[in-house]
Amino acid sequence: MQQNTLMAVIDPTRDDQIALAKAQQIAATTGAAVHAFCCCYLPAEAMGQYSSKAEAKQATLADIRSKLESLTAPLRQQNIPVTTEAYWNERWYESVIQACARSGADLLIKSTRPHSRLQRALSATSDYVMLRQAPCPVLLVRSEKPWRQRRILAAVTLEQEDREHELLNTAIVTRAQRLARSAGAELHLVSASPEVANLAQILKLLDDDAGGDSQTLIGNRYGVPAEQVHLEQGQARTVIAEAVKRLAPDVLVMGTTARRGLTGVLLGNTAEKVLDAVDVDTLVVS
């Protein structure tokens, strides 16, 4: 069986590397390999100390490679298979996506922080660019603390006649189920509640299977106990954020799409608001 690969994005501007720490924790439990990737670049004023741009590139990459070896030494001591890669590019988030494809990563892990409304309004943040373009799920981590609650929360969208969301829900729940099994955690589902009368049609249930309350119908569809299905009236952002506060999961699993144009902007804004409204590690599936 092919070994899974976790790609951890190293931030060259920080001493603490919580993405790598999280990758180490996951690899120690699952037997996955880790690919530590760091993209670096110097602003023009910093290159003045070198005789040429080529010298600046070579010296900086040498320093980064040395740092990567030091950072990954504890993983090797645990017999975790590790590879490292240093790359030179000003647009680091594009390089991350390309490296993710080169390494065949099954999961991309990156540290993150909340963004203000002004930051979101001025430009698309690098985090969200990666969420839309990454060739695999992305785990945005807030802390290197181990997952101890043994609880995973998956956010699904129940909308009538929406094939894209139906497929995305399947991908979200599949990833969440796998994560819950590997972490020995219980899986909960959350959704902004649709009209109950339409729920059987949304889930495409047969008449014989359409009995029971909403939690039971959704739970049966996705393999989750009814008492672990949480439906609330309100906007998705608010419903999800409140469920995170109430349940205190280790990980929130949610989805995003690669749509562009006005529809993509609207969908993107919803997902970004959820990410900035919660303080929890978040696995994003597309």
TrEMBL record:
Compartmental location: Cytoplasm
Gene3D superfamilies in alphabetical order: 3.40.50.12370
Domain called UspA: residue spans: 6-142, 171-285
UniProt keyword Metal-binding present: no
Main location: cytoplasm
One Gene Ontology cellular component annotation held by this UniProt entry: cytoplasm
Coiled coil start-end: none
Pfam families: Usp
UniProt keyword annotations, A-Z: Cytoplasm
Family: Belongs to the universal stress protein A family.
Function according to Swiss-Prot or TrEMBL: Required for resistance to DNA-damaging agents.
Protein name according to UniProt: UspA domain-containing protein
Annotated organism of origin: Exilibacterium tricleocarpae
